[in-house]
Design goal:
The complex is a heterotrimer of chains A (294), B (384) and C (310). Chain A is mainly α and 294 residues long. Chain A has a single domain (2-128, 140-293), classed as ABC transporter involved in vitamin B12 uptake, BtuC, CATH 1.10.3470. Chain A is 77% helix and 3% strand. Chain A contains 13 helices and 2 strands, in the order H-H-H-H-E-E-H-H-H-H-H-H-H-H-H. Chain A has a two-stranded antiparallel sheet. In chain A, helix 1 runs antiparallel to helix 10 (239-259). Chain A starts with a helix and ends with a helix. Chain B is an alpha/beta fold and 384 residues long. Chain B has 2 domains: 30-147 and 281-351, 3-Layer(aba) Sandwich (Rossmann fold), CATH 3.40.50; 150-276 and 367-381, Response regulator (Rossmann fold), CATH 3.40.50.2300. Chain B is built from 12 helices and 12 strands. Chain B has a 7-stranded mixed β-sheet, sandwiched between helices. Chain B has a 5-stranded parallel β-sheet with strand order 2-1-3-4-5, sandwiched between helices. In chain B, a hairpin with a 2-residue loop joins strand 11 and strand 12 (374-381). Chain C has 2 domains: 2-232, no CATH class; 234-310, no CATH class. Chain C has helices at 2-18, 23-48, 56-72, 78-100, 105-125, 127-130, 151-174, 176-186, 188-193, 198-220, 234-247, 252-273, 277-291, 296-309; strands spanning 136-137, 226-227. A two-stranded antiparallel sheet of chain C has the order 1-2. The longest helix of chain C has 26 residues, at 23-48. The two termini of chain C are 31 Å apart. The relative contact order of chain C is 0.16. Classes of the chains: A mainly alpha (294), B alpha/beta (384), C mainly alpha (310). Chains in contact: A-B, A-C, B-C.
């Protein structure tokens, strides 16, 4: 039973990471319809940022974290400004920005690998590596920190989209771009902010997961795929969907490995099969967008 | 008039000297090929091995070269892709390489063998540890002096003999080499009558190794053998191990000897026993460390040593063959006995006795234990 | 008739080249031809039929492993093994196509991505059937009617594969089917309204192109005489996509240019700028999408148009 509860904490933390990456996709996909596969590389860039600021220069954790996330806002904004905006304004087909971002995926990865070398680098956790017991639940400090941070981010995102006017304008852009523009919503600003926020969230995910897996230049693609899977499972329409998808994916992965009588090599196939099944049976994901329910 | 005469004489003399020097400069270099990975997944391991080989060439040339000629190292990048490795091998063969060294991924070395088999070019890997490289294809031109997985497990078992492990767990990841190492560790354990009570795989890209480690903990093994070769997954495994409060003794494959773990797995390494092939206290090794550090400014570690030894073995074979003729070199290489290198414990040597093509001394690996985050001194040598 | 002559001339010229090359150049040439073949069929699937799939290289792998297993483990004679291999690729492509083509855009991409990864997992777990992580090696092409096909003659086989693939795709493209594919790509609703069976068109396009990739894989198996899981991994699937984009999607000539450029680029750049060539890849991809979305073939067209206008 202890094992079970401890795994619950660990799987929740992993699920939060997947959920944050899924949220990163969602923040851009909702208003623009663009799928940014480079989110994994954004996480990687932030992880290396964490290495520089927190391991090398040993800044205090909150300072380092804020600087990295702020820098990621900048990276997201720049990515949109230079590789996406020219395409959108030219009226290029929707596939074009997606492909440009795929190219950026390679560019980010190679720049980091050239700058830092091929070896993985350490990133410190927020509160050190200790074990915390909260009643029957137990896990590492970092796991609880991840859960708390993800909770805060999702809480803020939910509040933003549900309760603020600015958030509603994002939704408006998502529902109908042209109408939103006609209503006076600044499309350019929305897109820029969406990319910036997306990069910030992806960066946070990278910073949170790196203490456990280290910062290494190949970490982007697996995160991108896991995040995308979470998004598909949870549904693109709602912020909560990203978190739900992430949790379901993480729980399916980890509990299958722990309890299912499947040989270890094949257990890796479980999330893949799960994804394929979901795509075939329920491609819109578990949670439908708000307008569909009315 | 005199000035012109002087000038003409000077230019003629210079021309004559240059003409005499020219043949020497145009003398044929001995070309040795090296296939490495500069951009792919093997890069963290291939780069230092390459650096060791490059330094070896420098040292050789400074001492007058090989057979009176300078040695030229032709380095090709296979990007960690096995099919590109085969292409790179062809390029090196066409360029006249007398010998080819492969230091990239295990499947890449395997694929390059299809070329060296066909062209009967001497070929060696000084760093790959997959046992199947010399068994899957019957290639008489191919040798392996990397630390075989079978030697690693034999050394670890010999170290652990008095601890009487009866039931053990294996944890690895899903790369080709990780799976291969696991396979041979398993075989070695089972041959010694030890029961494997759990065998887990942490896939690449995982965010946690908790489920796998919980299973291991639940199976209550006497010892845990780590057979994975990728840094992030091994770090996850060690993190989980501490997190779950496990106390099972850990014995790890030689991948854990790479210095990157001291920074990435800080605080997690104390007490981990690992098999290595580098004894810094050995005289030969100390000499190498001093010389390498003076040349590059960096302290060398075991991966550099593999590259260095590999190249020196090749040079030794060519020297004994007396030429770069492929058949003569092959015979000379196969005849290598008792070659003392940088790697291996005290008294270890390389050799290919009895037609074997794996040359690392089966008695030459050592076991070291991490003390805190630093690699402790050698506590055990060989498989006695 | 003219096109048949064109094909024969191309076959002769491309084959003649094979006899003039050293062993390193032959290796590059053969793999270039194979990548071009893959790019052509992928271009049809992605550029003409508009399906964003990452399973193309996986079918290449399925073909390669299938022929080896059928030849050396099931023990079929070569002609039968080839036919059985093709049949297997077609059946598998159908099995994947029927559910997959119901998915749109990025869902299809994701499903095929998962399929590609699943293939690698199956390969790694296949023990002696697939050779697991080490793959299959130590074999060679059996004699065909007592004749050993090696060296430049095998390159001729690859040339024929390439031209055969191009011929089939060209005919398909110019036929009613090609137009149906484009209609489905651009506007499925309108296509349906015009009487095109959208689902069937998509399934057929996917099946044919994937089966072609499988056949190319069968030929590849005997180029290096080694197959293993890393060869058929995701990075090569992405590379195929990049080739088609950079060359110009929807155009056969574009696929050929893209394949040639991106395949040869690392070999040319590596001696010059070392391992930075991967960075150049990404930059080229972004630059092409930003400045020349029609691909490099678009530049050629512009050049031709200017000449005609002048």
């Amino acid at each position: 039973m202890n094992d079970f509860l401890e795994l619950v904490v660990g799987a929740t933390a992993s699920g939060c990471i997947y959920g944050l990456v899924a949220l990163s996709y969602l923040l851009v996909t909702r208003p623009t319809g663009i799928i940014n596969f480079a989110v994994g590389e954004w996480s990687m860039v932030a992880a290396f940022g964490g290495f520089m600021l927190l391991s090398r220069w040993e800044l205090p954790y909150p300072v380092g974290m804020l600087v990295v996330v702020a820098a990621m806002f900048g990276v997201g904004w720049a990515t949109e400004r230079f590789t996406v905006r020219p395409l959108v304004e030219r009226g290029a087909p929707p596939l074009a920005p997606i492909l440009a971002l795929l190219g950026m995926l390679v560019v980010f990865r190679e720049l980091v690998s050239l700058g830092f070398g091929p070896d993985p680098q350490p990133v410190p956790p927020s509160f050190g590596f200790g074990r915390l017991e909260l009643g029957p639940l137990a896990g590492s400090y970092q796991s609880f920190f991840i859960i708390t941070m993800a909770g805060a981010v999702f809480g803020a995102a939910w509040w933003f989209f549900e309760r603020t006017l600015a958030g509603k304008s994002f939704e408006a852009v998502a529902i109908d771009r042209r109408a939103a523009a006609l209503m006076g919503i600044n499309l350019r600003l929305v897109t820029s902010l969406a990319f910036a926020a997306s990069a910030g969230v992806a960066g946070l995910a990278g910073l949170l997961v790196a203490p456990n897996v280290s910062a290494h230049y190949l970490m982007g693609l697996p995160l991108a795929i896991q995040g995308f899977t979470a998004l598909v499972i949870g549904g693109v329409g709602r912020v909560e969907g990203a978190l739900l998808g992430g949790l379901i994916l993480a729980f399916a992965e980890q509990f299958t490995v722990r309890y299912a009588p499947v040989p270890p090599g094949l257990a890796m196939g479980v999330p893949l099969v799960l994804l394929i099944v979901f795509l075939l049976i329920r491609p819109t994901g578990l949670l439908l967008p708000r307008e569909a329910r009315a | 008039m005199k000035k012109t005469f002087l000038r003409t004489a000077l230019s003629l003399a210079t021309g004559a000297v240059m003409m005499m020097a020219a043949p020497a400069a145009m003398a044929q270099t001995i070309k040795i090929g090296l296939i490495t990975d500069k951009v792919g997944p093997a890069k963290p391991y291939a780069e230092p091995v390459t650096a060791g080989a490059v330094y070896a060439v420098k040292e050789l040339n400074a001492k007058g070269g090989l057979l009176g000629r300078q040695v030229e190292l032709l380095v090709e990048d296979d990007q960690g892709k096995p099919d590109v490795s085969a292409t790179a091998a062809r390029k090196l063969v066409d360029a006249g390489a007398a010998f080819i060294l492969s230091v990239s991924l295990t499947p890449a070395t395997q694929q390059a063998q299809s070329v060296t088999l066909e062209t009967r070019t001497p070929h060696m890997t000084p760093s790959n540890s997959g046992d199947t490289l010399t068994t899957q294809i019957s290639n008489a031109n191919f040798w392996q002096t990397g630390p075989l997985a079978s030697t690693q497990i034999a050394t670890l078992l010999s170290y652990a003999r008095n601890k009487n492990f009866k039931r053990v767990a294996l944890v690895t990841e899903n790369s080709a080499l990780g799976q291969l190492t696991n396979q041979f560790f398993k075989a070695g354990l089972e041959k010694n009558g030890i029961q494997i009570v759990s065998e887990e795989v942490v896939p690449g890209g995982s965010t946690s190794a908790d489920p796998q480690m919980q299973k291991v903990r639940a199976s209550n093994p006497d010892a845990l053998f780590m057979t994975g070769v990728t840094t992030p997954e091994n770090a996850l495994i060690l993190r989980s191990y501490r997190q779950l409060g496990m106390k099972t003794p850990i014995l790890a494959n030689y991948n854990m000897s790479v210095p990157v773990y001291s920074s990435v797995a800080k605080g997690l390494l104390d007490g981990v026993a690992f098999v290595d092939a580098f004894d810094p206290a050995k005289a030969e090794t100390q000499r190498f460390i001093e010389a390498f550090k003076k040349d590059s400014g960096n302290e060398p570690y075991n991966l550099n040593g593999y590259g260095y030894d590999g190249l020196m073995l090749v040079a030794d074979a060519i020297k004994r063959a007396g030429s770069t003729d492929k058949d003569k070199v092959r015979e000379a290489m196969q005849a290598t006995r008792g070659f003392q290198g940088v790697m291996g414990g005290v008294g270890a040597s390389y050799g290919f006795a009895d037609g074997r093509r794996t040359g690392f001394d089966t008695n030459g690996m050592v076991v070291r234990v991490y003390e805190g985050d630093k690699q402790g001194k050698v506590v055990h040598v060989g498989v006695k | 008739m003219k096109s048949l002559l064109g094909f024969v001339v191309a076959a002769v010229v491309l084959s003649a080249v094979a006899f003039m090359l050293g062993s390193y150049q032959t290796d590059i040439y053969r793999k270039l031809l194979l990548w071009t073949t893959l790019a052509l069929s992928y271009n049809f699937l992605f550029g003409i039929a508009g399906q964003v799939a990452f399973s193309h290289f996986t079918f290449y792998g399925i073909g390669a492993y299938a022929i080896l297993i059928l030849l050396f483990q099931v023990g079929l004679p070569l002609p039968l093994a080839v036919l059985a291999g093709i049949a297997l690729c077609v059946v598998l492509a159908l099995v994947v196509a029927i559910p997959a083509t119901r998915l749109e855009g990025f869902y299809l991409a994701l499903a095929t991505l998962a399929f590609a990864q699943l293939f690698i997992v199956v390969l790694n777990e296949g023990r002696t059937v697939t050779g697991a992580a080490g793959g299959l090696a130590n074999y060679r092409l059996p004699d065909v009617f007592g004749v050993r096909v090696t060296g430049p003659w095998y390159t001729v086989v690859i040339v024929l594969l390439l031209l055969g693939t191009l011929a089939v795709l060209w005919r398909l493209d110019r036929s009613w089917f090609g137009r149906a594919c484009r209609a489905v790509r651009d506007n499925p609703e309108a296509a349906r309204a015009m009487g095109v069976d959208v689902a069937r068109t998509k399934i057929i396009a996917y099946t044919i192109t994937s089966a072609m990739a499988g056949v190319a894989g069968m030929v590849y198996a005997f180029v290096d005489n080694t197959v293993n899981p890393p060869i058929f991994g995701l990075p090569n699937s992405f590379l195929l996509l990049f080739m088609v984009i950079v060359g110009g999607s929807g155009r056969h000539a574009g696929a050929i240019i893209g394949a040639a450029l991106l395949y040869l680029m690392p070999f040319v750049l590596s001696p010059l700028i070392g391992h930075h060539h991967a960075l150049v890849f990404g930059v080229v991809m972004v630059a092409v999408v930003l400045f020349q979305p029609k691909g490099l073939i678009g530049l050629w067209d512009a050049l031709m148009a200017r000449r005609r206008a002048a």
